[in-house]
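ESCALATION

Customer reports they have been waiting on this structure for their group meeting. Please prioritize. Original submission:
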Amino acid sequence: MATAQLKRKIQHLSSLYFSEIQAIRQHLHREPELSMQEKATAQFIGKKLSEFGIEFRTGIAQTGIVAMIKGKKESTKVIALRADMDALPITEENEVSYKSVHPGVMHACGHDAHMASLLGVAKILQNTREHWGGTIKLIFQPSEESYPGGASLMIGEGVLKNPATACIFGQHVAPLIEAGKVGIRNGMYMASTDEVYLTVKGKGGHAATPHLTIDPVLIASHIVVALQQIVSRNNTPWIPTVLSFGRIMGEGRMNVIPNKVSLDGTIRTFSEAWRAEAHEKIRRIAQGVAVSMGGNCEVEIKEGYPFLKNDETLSNNFRSYATEYLGKENIVELDLAMTAEDFAFYSQQIPACFYRLGTRNEKAGITSNVHTPTFDIDEKALETGMGLMAWVAVNELNT
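Update from on-call: job pushed to the front of the queue and completed.
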């Protein structure tokens, strides 16, 4: 564990830099950019890194940035810290001075806070290099919100190599957790996510003469019901799985049976082997039901992010560091989440730890969830976020 003196210094610097990092977060919130369009965002981050005297590379996976900070003590260990950069296609409804100036685009998932916090971490680490050894790789990643995910693209361009990275930490806002607290879970944490598209084809006609049709609406209804056995009867109860259809479209009317019906859904789980098996079962059941009723079904499954697993040792290390920095009363044990994150790609490559930074403040009315037009954060969480991540990084380098 790093020294108590270093912890006090990091806490002091977090407080000292808070106003600057708060202003950075508000600038980023005001100027959001969608996935793979984060050009101005990347330029702004690069400018700040230059001001801090930190070396970096740009243009990785188009708009991504990787910065490197080397400690002055002897060590060859390399670890990575990641923040995502993209915003969502949501129109902001908050009336704040830093409200998005781009209609229909908003940092509604806290990525502005992630970037600002990591810049704060960068400044703290740059000014404490005499206390630690090794190399810390700062990854500013594009396109977390859109498949195939900026993480997979950056990995493909070698972000975990040159130098080889021993482990990686990621931080994400948590509007259900009070500011000043953090959440962690060992092992399986977030689900894989895949998109399921079915096109059921039959023979349309007048609703008053159904015997002259092959009704794709009826076929689609049977398919939806039949597919539920994949979760309830084919899957082991020990692997959480969700299969849901959120959109069914048949372009008929009250007295017209259409020629085809489309169904759009999602399947999420926590096993790569079962994930592949479930895809095959979806194909067989959907096509089999359709054929048995005189129609046919085209199945398209778009693979998204894998499931996110927190390395046991790294998560235990994080819990220990966070307890030392924040106190045991401020550590929250997280439940499994069926939502997905492209940080999962990193977790499939090297030991990874993805944790939650509390941002809730009920007294101030800051309670909206992510992906909503009224999402915001208690900005004091930035002080917690940058200080804790810097503390975690220097401790992990010393293990």
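Sent to customer with the following note: The chain has a mean pLDDT of 97.
Escalation resolved.
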